[in-house]
Amino acid sequence: MTTVANAPHVFTCPWVESPFFRSILRSREGSLDVLQRQLAEHYHEHGYVILDDVLDAASCERIVADVGPLFDPATTEGPRSRYRVQDAWRESAAVARLAADERILSTLRFLYERGPVPFQTLNFLTGTQQMAHADTLHFNCVPSKYLCGVWVALEDIHPDSGPLFYHPGSQRLPEFDPSDCDPRVGSAAEVYDQLVRLVGESFPRVEFTPHRGQALIWAANLWHGGAPIRDAKRTRRAQVTHYYFEDGIYYFPQNSNRALGQFELKDVVEVGTGRHVPHTLNGRALRATSIGNRRSTLSLVEGRSTSSDIPD
Ligand SMILES: O=C(O)CCC(=O)C(=O)O
Ligand SMILES: [Fe+2]
Fold this sequence. Notes:
- The chain is an alpha+beta fold.
- It has a single domain (about 15-300), classed as Jelly Rolls (Sandwich).
- Helix content is about 20%, strand content about 20%.
- The protein has six helices and 15 strands.
- The chain has helices at about 20-25, 35-45, 55-65, 95-100, 100-110, 190-200; strands spanning about 50, 85, 115-125, 140, 145-155, 165, 205-210, 215-220, 225, 240-245, 250, 260-265, 280, 285-290, 295-300.
- The strands form four sheets. It has a six-stranded antiparallel β-sheet. Strands 12-15-14-13 form a four-stranded antiparallel β-sheet, with no helix packed on it.
- The protein is globular, with a radius of gyration of 20 Å.
- The chain binds 2-oxoglutaric acid and fe (ii) ion (FE2).
- The site of 2-oxoglutaric acid has 11 residues, from strand 3 and strand 9.
């Protein structure tokens, strides 16, 4: 039998998201320095942390120059529009370097204790004015919470440019999963509208107006969005990288049903290396069987079933 290294860490989730975070922290008292402790406590309490000076001015300018020609002024929609470019890392080594920045990666290893996998970059020219959401609605994973975003300012961000906003503490809400909705209460879309309203009413709202080179790391379920643009002439240049962590199942929740074991799996391609990351159940190999409509069911390739060996 293997022994669990940190006894109080009983749930399979990042330790900074555990409901027993305080007792885990106590058990690690001697092994953390002051800054690590502050970082972990802040992430646990508020669902985000800010890192200063992640990127120097020359690297910011390199990214801005590389990405400039990739915006498509002819469209406001889609992966490459007049204000947003998805996966510019395929063309720009500087974009890929930021996604794999060692200071970001080592911070993520500390917070998540699994290998971080950057899987998507987004470069913005202006504000997005996106309504409040948690990224878990767009992509999610099993076990839950092994997902985060990192927002890096490529210029000083002005309050009138439509900055990123977030709702500290909202990461502790249950995740919204459309397939959990009770149709007798309302459609998933109706329930979701109510949730957006409640989150807005119930949590403080903070706007992020960083200096060039500052970064914000936010937890999978932290609600955030883009504030209204008050000055249309202002740019808001930034790079977001989304990260999964090794040993999970990665899927699109809007076409999946966890209770029924049906997933639209996401092909996770690691930024920079192009590696396809396998889906595993905490490291155990899985076989996917297509059931149509882009969905699959999953089974273990070998070994014991998933049934519990906990005595009745
Ligand atoms: O930058 C923004 O306005 C929002 C970005 C966002 O929601 C994301 O990248 O997940
Ligand atoms: Fe988002």
